[in-house]
Amino acid sequence: MDIEWAKDGDGVNVGTGNLFIVQARPETVHSQASKGSMETYKLKEKGKVLAEGLAVGTKIGQGTAHCIDDVADIHTFKAGEVLVTDMTDPDWEPVMKKAAAIVTNRGGRTCHAAIIARELGIPCVGGIPELLETVHTGDVVLLNGAEGTAVINPDSQALERYERSLDEVQKRKETMAQVSLTERTVTLDGIEVSVMANARSREDVELAMERGADGIGLFRTEPFFLSAKHFPSDKEFAEFLIGSLHSARGRHIDIRLLDIGADKNPIYLHLPPEPDPFLGRRGVRVLREYPDLLEAQLRAVLNVSQQFRIGVLIPMVTTESDVVCVVELFHSVAAEMGIRELPRIGAMIETPAAALSVPSLKKHVDFLSIGSNDLTQYTMAAGRENPLVTEYFIDDHPTILRLIELVVRESGDTPVSLCGELAGRIDVIPRLLRTGVRSLSVAAVSLREATYTYGNIQHHKAFTINIPSTAFVKEADYAGIYSGKQKNKYRYEQR
Fold first, then answer.
1. Residue 144 maps to which CATH number?
2. Measured by CB atoms within 10 angstroms of the end CB, which terminus of the chain is less buried, N or C?
3. Catalytic residue among 67, 111, 124, 419
4. Residue 322 has what pLDDT?
5. Are both 334 and 451 inside the same structural domain?
Protein backbone atom coordinates (compact mmCIF):
# COMPACT_ATOMS: atom_id res chain seq x y z
CA MET A 1 0.00 0.00 0.00
CA ASP A 2 0.92 3.64 -0.54
CA ILE A 3 0.06 5.68 2.55
CA GLU A 4 0.00 9.45 2.92
CA TRP A 5 0.66 10.74 6.42
CA ALA A 6 0.02 14.14 7.99
CA LYS A 7 1.00 15.55 11.37
CA ASP A 8 -1.46 17.99 13.02
CA GLY A 9 0.97 20.73 14.13
CA ASP A 10 3.56 20.32 16.87
CA GLY A 11 1.06 19.70 19.68
CA VAL A 12 2.34 22.72 21.63
CA ASN A 13 1.94 25.90 19.63
CA VAL A 14 -0.56 24.62 17.12
CA GLY A 15 -2.70 21.52 16.60
CA THR A 16 -2.81 18.27 18.49
CA GLY A 17 0.58 16.88 17.39
CA ASN A 18 -1.17 13.67 16.37
CA LEU A 19 -0.16 11.70 13.28
CA PHE A 20 -2.96 10.91 10.81
CA ILE A 21 -3.28 8.62 7.82
CA VAL A 22 -4.89 10.76 5.14
CA GLN A 23 -4.79 8.41 2.18
CA ALA A 24 -4.16 4.72 1.44
CA ARG A 25 -4.22 2.97 -1.87
CA PRO A 26 -2.57 0.03 -3.65
CA GLU A 27 1.18 0.54 -4.09
CA THR A 28 1.39 2.45 -7.38
CA VAL A 29 5.00 1.59 -8.15
CA HIS A 30 4.02 -2.03 -8.57
CA SER A 31 0.45 -1.66 -9.70
CA GLN A 32 1.51 0.50 -12.61
CA ALA A 33 4.38 -1.70 -13.71
CA SER A 34 2.51 -3.35 -16.56
CA LYS A 35 5.43 -2.81 -18.93
CA GLY A 36 7.75 -4.73 -16.62
CA SER A 37 10.75 -3.25 -14.90
CA MET A 38 12.61 -6.34 -13.77
CA GLU A 39 13.56 -9.72 -15.12
CA THR A 40 12.19 -12.15 -12.56
CA TYR A 41 12.10 -15.77 -13.71
CA LYS A 42 10.45 -18.84 -12.28
CA LEU A 43 10.82 -22.43 -13.39
CA LYS A 44 7.37 -23.79 -14.21
CA GLU A 45 8.33 -27.25 -13.03
CA LYS A 46 10.79 -28.29 -10.35
CA GLY A 47 12.94 -31.35 -10.81
CA LYS A 48 15.29 -33.03 -8.39
CA VAL A 49 17.20 -30.38 -6.48
CA LEU A 50 20.84 -31.26 -6.65
CA ALA A 51 22.05 -28.65 -4.24
CA GLU A 52 21.09 -25.36 -2.67
CA GLY A 53 23.31 -22.31 -2.38
CA LEU A 54 23.11 -18.53 -2.31
CA ALA A 55 20.94 -16.80 -4.89
CA VAL A 56 22.72 -14.29 -7.12
CA GLY A 57 20.32 -12.21 -9.20
CA THR A 58 17.04 -13.58 -10.54
CA LYS A 59 18.02 -15.30 -13.78
CA ILE A 60 17.79 -18.93 -14.84
CA GLY A 61 20.12 -20.85 -17.12
CA GLN A 62 20.79 -24.30 -18.46
CA GLY A 63 23.82 -26.07 -19.89
CA THR A 64 26.32 -28.87 -19.64
CA ALA A 65 28.43 -28.79 -16.50
CA HIS A 66 32.19 -28.43 -16.81
CA CYS A 67 33.97 -28.89 -13.49
CA ILE A 68 37.32 -27.14 -13.12
CA ASP A 69 39.22 -27.03 -9.83
CA ASP A 70 42.38 -25.30 -11.11
CA VAL A 71 42.61 -22.11 -13.19
CA ALA A 72 45.39 -23.76 -15.21
CA ASP A 73 42.74 -25.98 -16.84
CA ILE A 74 40.40 -23.25 -18.10
CA HIS A 75 41.62 -23.79 -21.69
CA THR A 76 39.49 -26.95 -21.76
CA PHE A 77 36.28 -24.98 -21.18
CA LYS A 78 33.89 -24.56 -24.14
CA ALA A 79 31.54 -21.66 -24.79
CA GLY A 80 27.99 -22.30 -23.52
CA GLU A 81 28.96 -24.68 -20.75
CA VAL A 82 28.13 -24.19 -17.07
CA LEU A 83 31.26 -23.37 -15.09
CA VAL A 84 31.44 -25.40 -11.87
CA THR A 85 34.33 -24.58 -9.56
CA ASP A 86 35.32 -23.88 -5.97
CA MET A 87 35.79 -20.13 -6.30
CA THR A 88 36.89 -17.59 -8.91
CA ASP A 89 39.25 -14.63 -9.05
CA PRO A 90 40.25 -12.29 -11.90
CA ASP A 91 42.34 -15.05 -13.51
CA TRP A 92 39.08 -16.87 -14.29
CA GLU A 93 37.43 -14.03 -16.20
CA PRO A 94 38.31 -15.26 -19.74
CA VAL A 95 36.38 -18.48 -19.16
CA MET A 96 33.56 -16.78 -17.24
CA LYS A 97 32.78 -14.65 -20.30
CA LYS A 98 32.09 -17.86 -22.27
CA ALA A 99 29.94 -19.56 -19.62
CA ALA A 100 26.17 -20.00 -19.80
CA ALA A 101 26.04 -19.95 -16.01
CA ILE A 102 28.35 -20.19 -12.99
CA VAL A 103 28.13 -22.38 -9.89
CA THR A 104 30.67 -22.08 -7.07
CA ASN A 105 31.44 -23.97 -3.90
CA ARG A 106 32.26 -20.81 -1.92
CA GLY A 107 31.28 -17.14 -2.08
CA GLY A 108 28.26 -14.93 -1.49
CA ARG A 109 26.27 -12.26 -3.38
CA THR A 110 29.23 -9.90 -3.62
CA CYS A 111 32.05 -12.35 -4.25
CA HIS A 112 34.06 -12.13 -7.47
CA ALA A 113 31.95 -14.73 -9.32
CA ALA A 114 28.69 -13.02 -8.37
CA ILE A 115 29.83 -9.55 -9.43
CA ILE A 116 31.16 -10.74 -12.79
CA ALA A 117 28.06 -12.86 -13.42
CA ARG A 118 25.81 -9.84 -12.88
CA GLU A 119 27.97 -7.71 -15.16
CA LEU A 120 27.80 -10.44 -17.83
CA GLY A 121 24.07 -10.96 -17.33
CA ILE A 122 24.33 -14.71 -16.66
CA PRO A 123 22.88 -16.83 -13.82
CA CYS A 124 25.03 -17.63 -10.81
CA VAL A 125 24.61 -19.65 -7.63
CA GLY A 126 27.31 -19.63 -4.98
CA GLY A 127 28.06 -21.23 -1.64
CA ILE A 128 27.06 -24.84 -2.48
CA PRO A 129 28.86 -27.20 -0.06
CA GLU A 130 30.71 -30.18 -1.54
CA LEU A 131 29.82 -28.94 -5.01
CA LEU A 132 32.68 -30.63 -6.85
CA GLU A 133 31.84 -33.97 -5.23
CA THR A 134 28.20 -33.68 -6.31
CA VAL A 135 28.30 -32.34 -9.87
CA HIS A 136 30.29 -34.06 -12.61
CA THR A 137 31.46 -32.83 -15.99
CA GLY A 138 28.84 -33.71 -18.59
CA ASP A 139 25.83 -33.38 -16.27
CA VAL A 140 23.01 -31.20 -17.55
CA VAL A 141 22.31 -28.47 -15.02
CA LEU A 142 19.32 -26.15 -14.68
CA LEU A 143 20.28 -23.14 -12.63
CA ASN A 144 17.79 -20.94 -10.79
CA GLY A 145 19.57 -17.79 -9.68
CA ALA A 146 16.46 -16.47 -7.92
CA GLU A 147 16.08 -19.47 -5.63
CA GLY A 148 19.75 -20.42 -5.39
CA THR A 149 19.19 -23.97 -6.64
CA ALA A 150 20.84 -26.25 -9.16
CA VAL A 151 18.88 -29.13 -10.75
CA ILE A 152 20.85 -32.01 -12.24
CA ASN A 153 19.78 -33.86 -15.39
CA PRO A 154 16.16 -32.59 -15.57
CA ASP A 155 13.64 -34.69 -17.53
CA SER A 156 12.48 -33.79 -21.04
CA GLN A 157 9.23 -32.19 -19.91
CA ALA A 158 11.10 -29.88 -17.54
CA LEU A 159 13.47 -28.90 -20.35
CA GLU A 160 10.55 -28.17 -22.69
CA ARG A 161 8.98 -25.90 -20.11
CA TYR A 162 12.34 -24.26 -19.62
CA GLU A 163 12.60 -23.52 -23.34
CA ARG A 164 9.12 -21.99 -23.32
CA SER A 165 10.04 -19.85 -20.33
CA LEU A 166 13.02 -18.55 -22.29
CA ASP A 167 10.64 -17.38 -25.02
CA GLU A 168 8.70 -15.44 -22.39
CA VAL A 169 11.93 -13.97 -21.08
CA GLN A 170 12.83 -12.80 -24.57
CA LYS A 171 9.47 -11.07 -24.88
CA ARG A 172 10.08 -9.25 -21.60
CA LYS A 173 13.52 -8.19 -22.82
CA GLU A 174 11.96 -6.78 -25.99
CA THR A 175 9.50 -4.83 -23.85
CA MET A 176 12.34 -3.47 -21.69
CA ALA A 177 14.24 -2.47 -24.81
CA GLN A 178 11.46 0.02 -25.53
CA VAL A 179 12.12 1.88 -22.28
CA SER A 180 13.56 5.27 -23.14
CA LEU A 181 17.03 5.96 -21.82
CA THR A 182 17.51 9.28 -23.51
CA GLU A 183 15.41 11.41 -21.20
CA ARG A 184 16.88 13.07 -18.12
CA THR A 185 16.14 11.25 -14.90
CA VAL A 186 14.40 13.65 -12.54
CA THR A 187 12.77 12.90 -9.19
CA LEU A 188 9.26 13.99 -8.34
CA ASP A 189 10.54 17.09 -6.58
CA GLY A 190 12.67 18.10 -9.56
CA ILE A 191 16.08 16.77 -8.49
CA GLU A 192 18.12 15.23 -11.29
CA VAL A 193 19.62 11.78 -10.67
CA SER A 194 22.66 10.48 -12.54
CA VAL A 195 22.74 6.83 -13.63
CA MET A 196 26.30 5.73 -14.31
CA ALA A 197 27.82 2.33 -15.08
CA ASN A 198 30.53 0.12 -13.59
CA ALA A 199 33.03 -1.21 -16.11
CA ARG A 200 36.30 -3.08 -16.35
CA SER A 201 36.85 -3.44 -20.11
CA ARG A 202 36.19 -1.90 -23.52
CA GLU A 203 33.19 -4.23 -23.93
CA ASP A 204 31.67 -3.08 -20.65
CA VAL A 205 32.06 0.58 -21.62
CA GLU A 206 30.51 0.00 -25.05
CA LEU A 207 27.52 -1.79 -23.50
CA ALA A 208 27.06 1.01 -20.98
CA MET A 209 27.03 3.65 -23.69
CA GLU A 210 24.66 1.55 -25.80
CA ARG A 211 22.26 1.34 -22.85
CA GLY A 212 22.28 5.06 -22.20
CA ALA A 213 24.55 5.45 -19.18
CA ASP A 214 25.32 9.02 -18.15
CA GLY A 215 28.96 7.99 -17.86
CA ILE A 216 31.25 5.51 -16.13
CA GLY A 217 31.01 5.87 -12.36
CA LEU A 218 33.59 3.19 -11.60
CA PHE A 219 36.20 1.92 -14.04
CA ARG A 220 38.11 -0.96 -12.44
CA THR A 221 41.78 -1.16 -13.47
CA GLU A 222 42.63 -4.50 -11.83
CA PRO A 223 42.20 -6.71 -14.95
CA PHE A 224 44.93 -4.77 -16.76
CA PHE A 225 47.47 -4.96 -13.95
CA LEU A 226 46.71 -8.58 -13.05
CA SER A 227 47.11 -9.76 -16.65
CA ALA A 228 50.44 -7.96 -17.14
CA LYS A 229 53.55 -10.16 -17.04
CA HIS A 230 55.84 -7.30 -16.00
CA PHE A 231 55.64 -3.99 -14.19
CA PRO A 232 53.49 -1.88 -16.59
CA SER A 233 54.74 1.50 -17.71
CA ASP A 234 52.60 4.63 -17.61
CA LYS A 235 52.53 4.56 -21.43
CA GLU A 236 51.14 1.00 -21.48
CA PHE A 237 48.49 1.87 -18.91
CA ALA A 238 47.49 5.01 -20.82
CA GLU A 239 47.11 3.00 -24.03
CA PHE A 240 44.87 0.53 -22.20
CA LEU A 241 42.69 3.35 -20.85
CA ILE A 242 42.36 5.08 -24.22
CA GLY A 243 41.41 1.83 -25.94
CA SER A 244 38.90 0.88 -23.23
CA LEU A 245 37.23 4.27 -22.80
CA HIS A 246 36.97 5.32 -26.46
CA SER A 247 33.18 4.89 -26.73
CA ALA A 248 32.63 7.02 -23.59
CA ARG A 249 34.50 10.03 -24.96
CA GLY A 250 32.67 13.18 -23.92
CA ARG A 251 31.03 11.47 -20.92
CA HIS A 252 32.32 11.63 -17.38
CA ILE A 253 34.54 8.70 -16.36
CA ASP A 254 35.81 7.89 -12.85
CA ILE A 255 38.91 5.69 -12.94
CA ARG A 256 39.73 3.81 -9.75
CA LEU A 257 43.43 3.45 -9.02
CA LEU A 258 44.65 -0.12 -8.61
CA ASP A 259 42.77 -1.87 -5.80
CA ILE A 260 44.64 -5.08 -4.99
CA GLY A 261 45.99 -6.99 -2.03
CA ALA A 262 47.24 -10.43 -1.16
CA ASP A 263 44.02 -11.89 -2.59
CA LYS A 264 44.77 -10.27 -5.99
CA ASN A 265 48.52 -10.44 -6.35
CA PRO A 266 50.27 -9.43 -9.60
CA ILE A 267 53.24 -11.70 -10.25
CA TYR A 268 55.65 -8.76 -10.50
CA LEU A 269 54.84 -7.35 -7.03
CA HIS A 270 55.46 -10.54 -5.04
CA LEU A 271 53.15 -9.53 -2.20
CA PRO A 272 53.58 -11.98 0.69
CA PRO A 273 50.50 -14.00 1.70
CA GLU A 274 48.40 -12.65 4.54
CA PRO A 275 46.12 -14.53 6.95
CA ASP A 276 43.26 -12.10 6.21
CA PRO A 277 43.87 -10.14 2.98
CA PHE A 278 40.75 -8.00 3.43
CA LEU A 279 42.15 -6.65 6.70
CA GLY A 280 45.70 -6.30 5.44
CA ARG A 281 47.48 -4.37 2.73
CA ARG A 282 44.85 -3.41 0.18
CA GLY A 283 44.11 -0.52 -2.14
CA VAL A 284 45.88 2.70 -1.23
CA ARG A 285 47.99 0.88 1.37
CA VAL A 286 49.68 -1.08 -1.41
CA LEU A 287 50.03 2.05 -3.54
CA ARG A 288 51.75 3.86 -0.67
CA GLU A 289 54.11 0.94 -0.28
CA TYR A 290 54.92 0.92 -4.02
CA PRO A 291 55.17 4.62 -4.97
CA ASP A 292 56.52 3.79 -8.44
CA LEU A 293 53.32 1.88 -9.16
CA LEU A 294 51.22 4.80 -7.94
CA GLU A 295 53.20 7.39 -9.91
CA ALA A 296 52.92 5.36 -13.15
CA GLN A 297 49.12 5.34 -12.80
CA LEU A 298 48.94 9.06 -12.03
CA ARG A 299 51.08 9.88 -15.07
CA ALA A 300 48.84 7.75 -17.26
CA VAL A 301 45.57 9.29 -16.08
CA LEU A 302 47.00 12.79 -16.41
CA ASN A 303 47.88 12.05 -20.04
CA VAL A 304 44.46 10.53 -20.67
CA SER A 305 42.77 13.53 -19.05
CA GLN A 306 43.83 15.60 -22.05
CA GLN A 307 41.40 13.54 -24.18
CA PHE A 308 38.69 12.42 -21.74
CA ARG A 309 36.61 13.89 -18.91
CA ILE A 310 37.97 11.77 -16.12
CA GLY A 311 38.10 11.60 -12.35
CA VAL A 312 40.55 9.60 -10.25
CA LEU A 313 39.40 7.46 -7.32
CA ILE A 314 41.62 6.54 -4.36
CA PRO A 315 40.63 3.03 -3.17
CA MET A 316 40.28 1.70 0.35
CA VAL A 317 40.76 4.94 2.27
CA THR A 318 40.81 4.73 6.07
CA THR A 319 42.81 7.77 7.19
CA GLU A 320 43.29 11.36 6.06
CA SER A 321 46.96 10.61 5.31
CA ASP A 322 45.83 8.01 2.72
CA VAL A 323 44.31 10.82 0.73
CA VAL A 324 46.94 13.48 1.37
CA CYS A 325 49.87 11.37 0.15
CA VAL A 326 48.13 10.58 -3.16
CA VAL A 327 46.91 14.14 -3.71
CA GLU A 328 50.35 15.61 -3.03
CA LEU A 329 52.02 13.21 -5.47
CA PHE A 330 49.26 13.91 -8.01
CA HIS A 331 49.97 17.65 -7.92
CA SER A 332 53.72 17.07 -8.01
CA VAL A 333 53.53 14.83 -11.10
CA ALA A 334 51.14 17.23 -12.82
CA ALA A 335 53.52 20.15 -12.22
CA GLU A 336 56.42 18.12 -13.60
CA MET A 337 54.36 17.28 -16.72
CA GLY A 338 53.29 20.90 -17.13
CA ILE A 339 49.60 20.10 -16.71
CA ARG A 340 47.71 22.90 -14.98
CA GLU A 341 44.12 21.71 -15.33
CA LEU A 342 43.94 18.56 -13.23
CA PRO A 343 41.17 15.97 -13.40
CA ARG A 344 38.91 15.61 -10.39
CA ILE A 345 40.24 13.41 -7.61
CA GLY A 346 38.00 11.52 -5.21
CA ALA A 347 38.14 9.18 -2.23
CA MET A 348 36.39 5.82 -1.97
CA ILE A 349 34.27 5.51 1.16
CA GLU A 350 34.46 1.77 1.86
CA THR A 351 35.15 1.60 5.59
CA PRO A 352 33.33 2.93 8.65
CA ALA A 353 36.51 4.91 9.42
CA ALA A 354 36.27 6.73 6.09
CA ALA A 355 32.51 7.30 6.49
CA LEU A 356 33.08 8.89 9.89
CA SER A 357 36.01 10.95 8.58
CA VAL A 358 34.22 12.70 5.71
CA PRO A 359 34.67 16.22 7.21
CA SER A 360 38.47 15.82 7.12
CA LEU A 361 38.62 13.86 3.85
CA LYS A 362 36.52 16.25 1.80
CA LYS A 363 39.05 19.05 2.37
CA HIS A 364 41.48 17.27 0.02
CA VAL A 365 39.23 15.87 -2.72
CA ASP A 366 36.67 16.97 -5.29
CA PHE A 367 34.16 14.16 -4.80
CA LEU A 368 33.41 11.00 -2.82
CA SER A 369 32.29 7.57 -3.98
CA ILE A 370 30.67 5.09 -1.59
CA GLY A 371 31.62 1.46 -2.28
CA SER A 372 28.71 -0.43 -0.77
CA ASN A 373 30.24 -3.93 -1.05
CA ASP A 374 33.24 -3.24 1.16
CA LEU A 375 31.35 -0.80 3.37
CA THR A 376 28.96 -3.64 4.20
CA GLN A 377 31.78 -6.10 4.72
CA TYR A 378 33.63 -3.94 7.21
CA THR A 379 30.58 -2.55 8.97
CA MET A 380 28.80 -5.89 9.43
CA ALA A 381 32.06 -7.81 10.11
CA ALA A 382 31.10 -10.35 7.44
CA GLY A 383 33.57 -11.35 4.74
CA ARG A 384 32.27 -11.00 1.18
CA GLU A 385 33.79 -14.34 0.20
CA ASN A 386 32.71 -16.29 3.28
CA PRO A 387 29.45 -18.24 2.84
CA LEU A 388 29.42 -19.08 6.57
CA VAL A 389 28.51 -15.48 7.46
CA THR A 390 26.26 -14.67 4.54
CA GLU A 391 23.33 -14.06 6.86
CA TYR A 392 25.28 -11.11 8.28
CA PHE A 393 26.23 -9.61 4.92
CA ILE A 394 23.16 -7.39 4.55
CA ASP A 395 24.02 -4.50 2.27
CA ASP A 396 20.65 -2.80 2.75
CA HIS A 397 20.78 -3.10 6.54
CA PRO A 398 19.53 0.07 8.30
CA THR A 399 23.05 0.59 9.67
CA ILE A 400 24.49 0.71 6.13
CA LEU A 401 21.81 3.15 4.99
CA ARG A 402 22.47 5.34 8.05
CA LEU A 403 26.17 5.43 7.17
CA ILE A 404 25.34 6.36 3.57
CA GLU A 405 23.03 9.12 4.80
CA LEU A 406 25.76 10.34 7.16
CA VAL A 407 28.29 10.52 4.33
CA VAL A 408 25.89 12.51 2.15
CA ARG A 409 25.01 14.89 5.00
CA GLU A 410 28.62 15.43 6.10
CA SER A 411 29.84 15.91 2.53
CA GLY A 412 28.10 19.28 2.20
CA ASP A 413 28.70 20.63 -1.30
CA THR A 414 31.13 17.80 -2.17
CA PRO A 415 29.43 15.47 -4.72
CA VAL A 416 28.76 11.90 -3.58
CA SER A 417 28.11 8.85 -5.76
CA LEU A 418 27.30 5.26 -4.83
CA CYS A 419 28.70 2.21 -6.57
CA GLY A 420 28.60 -1.46 -5.63
CA GLU A 421 25.89 -4.07 -5.93
CA LEU A 422 23.48 -2.12 -3.73
CA ALA A 423 23.23 0.64 -6.34
CA GLY A 424 21.74 -1.79 -8.86
CA ARG A 425 19.07 -3.24 -6.56
CA ILE A 426 15.89 -1.71 -7.85
CA ASP A 427 14.02 -2.63 -4.68
CA VAL A 428 16.44 -0.46 -2.67
CA ILE A 429 16.71 2.54 -5.01
CA PRO A 430 13.85 4.50 -3.35
CA ARG A 431 15.56 4.08 0.03
CA LEU A 432 18.88 5.22 -1.42
CA LEU A 433 17.26 8.34 -2.80
CA ARG A 434 15.85 9.08 0.65
CA THR A 435 19.43 9.09 2.03
CA GLY A 436 20.24 11.94 -0.35
CA VAL A 437 22.24 9.96 -2.92
CA ARG A 438 21.81 11.48 -6.37
CA SER A 439 24.33 9.52 -8.43
CA LEU A 440 24.37 5.74 -8.76
CA SER A 441 26.79 3.53 -10.66
CA VAL A 442 25.43 0.10 -11.60
CA ALA A 443 26.41 -2.86 -13.75
CA ALA A 444 25.74 -2.10 -17.40
CA VAL A 445 23.20 -4.92 -17.66
CA SER A 446 21.16 -3.25 -14.87
CA LEU A 447 20.89 0.14 -16.55
CA ARG A 448 17.47 -0.36 -18.08
CA GLU A 449 16.01 -1.76 -14.87
CA ALA A 450 17.45 1.04 -12.75
CA THR A 451 16.34 3.73 -15.17
CA TYR A 452 12.82 2.34 -15.44
CA THR A 453 12.63 2.34 -11.66
CA TYR A 454 13.48 6.00 -11.72
CA GLY A 455 10.71 6.50 -14.23
CA ASN A 456 8.27 5.00 -11.74
CA ILE A 457 9.61 7.19 -8.98
CA GLN A 458 9.29 10.23 -11.19
CA HIS A 459 5.58 9.67 -11.72
CA HIS A 460 4.57 7.91 -8.47
CA LYS A 461 5.31 8.20 -4.78
CA ALA A 462 8.63 6.64 -3.83
CA PHE A 463 7.85 6.26 -0.13
CA THR A 464 5.74 3.17 0.48
CA ILE A 465 4.85 1.11 3.51
CA ASN A 466 3.27 -2.34 3.77
CA ILE A 467 0.35 -2.48 6.18
CA PRO A 468 1.14 -5.35 8.59
CA SER A 469 -2.07 -5.73 10.57
CA THR A 470 -5.86 -5.68 10.39
CA ALA A 471 -5.93 -2.67 12.71
CA PHE A 472 -3.90 -0.64 10.27
CA VAL A 473 -6.17 -1.70 7.42
CA LYS A 474 -9.17 -0.38 9.37
CA GLU A 475 -7.43 2.93 9.96
CA ALA A 476 -6.58 3.21 6.28
CA ASP A 477 -10.16 2.40 5.36
CA TYR A 478 -11.34 5.15 7.69
CA ALA A 479 -9.08 7.68 5.92
CA GLY A 480 -10.51 6.59 2.57
CA ILE A 481 -9.03 6.40 -0.88
CA TYR A 482 -9.89 9.91 -2.01
CA SER A 483 -7.06 12.23 -2.92
CA GLY A 484 -6.37 15.12 -0.58
CA LYS A 485 -6.62 17.35 -3.64
CA GLN A 486 -10.29 16.38 -3.93
CA LYS A 487 -11.39 16.41 -0.31
CA ASN A 488 -10.28 18.27 2.80
CA LYS A 489 -9.77 15.30 5.08
CA TYR A 490 -8.99 17.43 8.09
CA ARG A 491 -12.67 18.35 8.18
CA TYR A 492 -13.65 14.73 8.71
CA GLU A 493 -15.00 14.07 12.18
CA GLN A 494 -13.32 11.36 14.17
CA ARG A 495 -15.36 8.24 14.67
1. 3.50.30.10
2. C
3. 419
4. 97
5. yes
Residue 182 domain-assigned (yes or no): no
CA distance 223 to 291: 20
Range of the domain at 211: 194-459
Asked if 419 is an active-site residue, the reply is yes
What confidence score (pLDDT) does residue 211 get?
Answer: 80
Minimal CA–CA distance to 66: which of 115, 136, 134, 3? 136
Alpha carbon 267 to chain centroid, angstroms? 29
**Is 112 known to be catalytic?**
yes
Whether 180 maps to a domain, the answer reads no
Q: Which residues of the chain have pLDDT under 50?
A: 26-41, 43, 50-52, 54-55, 57-58, 179-180, 461-469, 472-487, 489-495
Q: Which residues contact 239 (CB under 8 A, 6 or more apart)?
A: none
Please state the domain count of the chain.
3
Asked if residue 392 and residue 355 are part of one domain, the reply reads yes
Q: Which phi-psi region, left, alpha or beta, contains residue 420 (left: φ > 0; alpha: ψ -120 to 50)?
A: left
What local confidence, expressed as pLDDT, does residue 469 receive? 47
DSSP 235: H
By percentage, how much of the chain surpasses pLDDT 70? 71
